[in-house]
Design a protein that fits this description.
360 residues, 16 helices, globular
């Protein structure tokens, strides 16, 4: 059975580096990891792997790869509006006033507020306003988790999986993740789905994985929407449904998930599961290319050099080809076309690529 390749969300993650991957051939490509988000912001779900449209579209997913925990990002515990004082903690956190958030959260935690406890765990875990201390982060997440906070349950589960702040305990991590998912935590449902898909920590169960992905996707998590789209595209754990796959890709794309942008562009370019719309596909490829997707850059190069769905622009097209090569997405056929380009045009394309890469 072919399974989509998906990467586990990072420890304490609200925005994720990667999700399920679709593979489009001509020319052959493999997805590459996206850039990691840097500074914590308000709680949007965010964005890492790719595939893209080509002159001769076809699709074939790669076999499942084992999920690999990554470095921690952030959990942003949203405060309840009926608890006095917590909004001040969250507001300070959003503004980057971490020392103030720490002081306010400490006072609220002393009064027994679980959201403030989760915030303290977050600050200790990510060295925000205080020195990083995983042991203290684990302690605060544990207290908040025992008080029923679903964000804390997920954060504690990821610490247990990684062994930060204590020993690795995958059994406890799975229980915590399942409890958080039952309480509606989409990141927990997503990660639990990956564990069922991977079949190492839990017995492989693609149907259960699909159910959990659907739960997280319905809650608006773009990574889950993208992963579930691959399930519907290939009929993994669910009936094959190209139209539903495209709708999920569109939703994740609207949330700026780069992988979904590339796949949705492919679908529109080829008219797969949605009416063909090559100009819209090319526009989305441009966006994903500017966001650093080497796959999108490679496909945009094909589009522009061959005038497919857009006016031919060989200099711009070969610029993106050269940029894609630096991201590991070389293309022998485009290399050959570039060598046949007049010397002046080739020099212009090379100069444009260097300017984009900041090497000029």
């Amino acid at each position: 059975m072919k399974l989509p390749r998906i990467t586990i969300l990072a420890t304490l993650l609200l925005t994720a580096p990667a999700a399920a991957q679709l593979q489009i051939t001509p020319p052959a490509t493999t997805p590459s990891p996206p850039a990691e988000k840097q500074k914590p912001k308000a709680p949007p779900p965010a964005k890492k792997k790719e595939a893209a449209p080509a002159p001769k579209p076809s699709a074939s997913p790669k076999p499942a790869a084992s999920p690999k925990p990554q470095l921690p990002a952030t959990v942003i515990p949203a405060p309840p509006t009926d608890t006095p004082g917590v909004d001040l903690v969250f507001g300070a956190y959003q503004r980057g006033q971490y020392k103030t958030a720490f002081e306010l959260a400490t006072a609220r935690a002393a009064a027994g507020d679980p959201k403030a406890m989760t915030m303290l765990g977050e600050l200790y875990s990510n060295a925000m306003g205080i020195r990083r201390d995983y042991a203290k982060a684990l302690e605060w997440y544990k207290r908040a988790s025992d008080a029923g906070d679903r964000e804390a349950m997920f954060a504690l589960a990821m610490l247990r999986i990684s062994g930060r702040g204590g020993s690795v305990d995958k059994g406890e991590a799975v229980k915590l993740m399942a409890s958080a998912a039952k309480l509606g935590e989409p990141k927990a449902a997503y990660n639990l789905a990956l564990l069922y898909l991977d079949g190492q920590t839990l017995p492989q169960d693609v149907k259960r994985s699909a159910e959990l992905l659907r739960q997280a996707a319905d809650a608006g998590l773009p990574e889950a929407q993208y992963a579930l789209a691959t399930f519907y595209k290939e009929g993994t754990g669910v009936p094959k449904d190209p139209e539903r796959a495209v709708r999920l890709l569109q939703a994740a794309s609207l949330a700026d998930n780069v992988d979904a942008e590339v796949e949705y562009a492919i679908a529109m370019f080829n008219g797969t599961g949605t009416p063909k719309n090559q100009p819209a596909a090319v526009a989305l490829l441009r966006k994903a290319s500017r966001q650093g997707s080497a796959i999108a850059q490679n496909r945009l190069a094909w589009v522009l050099t061959n005038g497919m769905g857009a006016s031919a622009d060989k200099i711009e097209g070969f610029k993106w080809h050269l940029v894609a090569k630096t991201g590991g997405k070389g293309d022998p056929e485009l290399d050959k076309q570039l060598s046949d380009l007049p010397a002046d045009d080739r020099a212009k394309a090379e100069a444009a690529a260097k300017k984009w890469l900041g090497t000029k």
